[in-house]
Amino acid sequence: MNFGKTALRSVAFAFAIFAVPMVIALPAQQAAAATTVKVVVNKTAITSDDIAKRAAFLKLQRQSGNLPAKAREQLIDEALKREEIARVKMSVSTADVDASFARFASTNKMTTDQLTKVLAQAGVGAEHFKSFIAVQMSWPRLVNARYGGRNKMSTQDFVTRLKERGSKPVTNEYFLQQVIFVIPEAKRNSITGKRKSEAEASRKRYPGCEQAKTFAATMLDVSIKDLGRMLEPELPPDWKPLVEKTAEGGTTGTRVTEKGVEYLAVCKKQQVSDDYAAEVVFRSEDLMKAEKGENPNEKKYLEELRKKAQITST
């Protein structure tokens, strides 16, 4: 069984969980070993079991070398990232992680139960993989949120890029409104289906952005938020394909999020080619290039976290 390479991208400009070739070749029985704490990152313990699971994951990726050592370093980095993600409250939801897990399974022509069994047989486990997915989805959002607004191009760089292109790039400008059918966490399992049906039904009766708040007042626990101006490269990856295919005055399909069931209304859509739009396009292109290699801002951020962290081997 092979897992083909795929990419699943998240907010600001990118997010990805990557799948690499995985070959299942297991011994008839794996010996159980006592779990011990190997590293403490600030207050987070990394155990021998954690390292064994990550080493098994690296093996499925056909990586070579000292896999336990590589696994240990990856888990230290992830512990730092996870702590920072929690601190600034930018974690993706459990629903988003489960959806990515399901897409991964589907891409590789498996059900989620089949993927769970494969991961268990390989010594990785579904929960370890989902924890990995959560960090891979959340971390790029955090990096982009921190550095995205700071990377203003110099006038010289901007002029050079314009000369190379020959003209200012054109992109779509949106004015969006967010409609949320709120679901209390305690009722998430019991009413999500009902709220999704209500949200879908409301899309057919949506009166337009100007009347939306009056419209929402006729329904129970429905929130309206004006998101204002947003250029196409700035659209969150989770929403981007839905927004792009929605006409002005229309609404996107619904998504289940940590807040409830949501959809976006496209209040206005037009093409723009001003200086700000051009710079946003150029920065987006640079970030897309960085995704294919190493994002220097990501490395810088992680180095800062490592310098401040207490990392103790036991």
Automatic annotation (TrEMBL):
Leader sequence residues: 1-25
InterPro entries for this protein: OMP_Chaperone_SurA, Trigger_fact/SurA_dom_sf
Residue ranges that the Swiss-Prot or TrEMBL entry lists as coiled coil: none
Full protein name: Molecular chaperone SurA
A GO MF label: peptidyl-prolyl cis-trans isomerase activity
Record key words, sorted: Signal
Keyword Signal: yes
UniProt-listed PANTHER family: CHAPERONE SURA
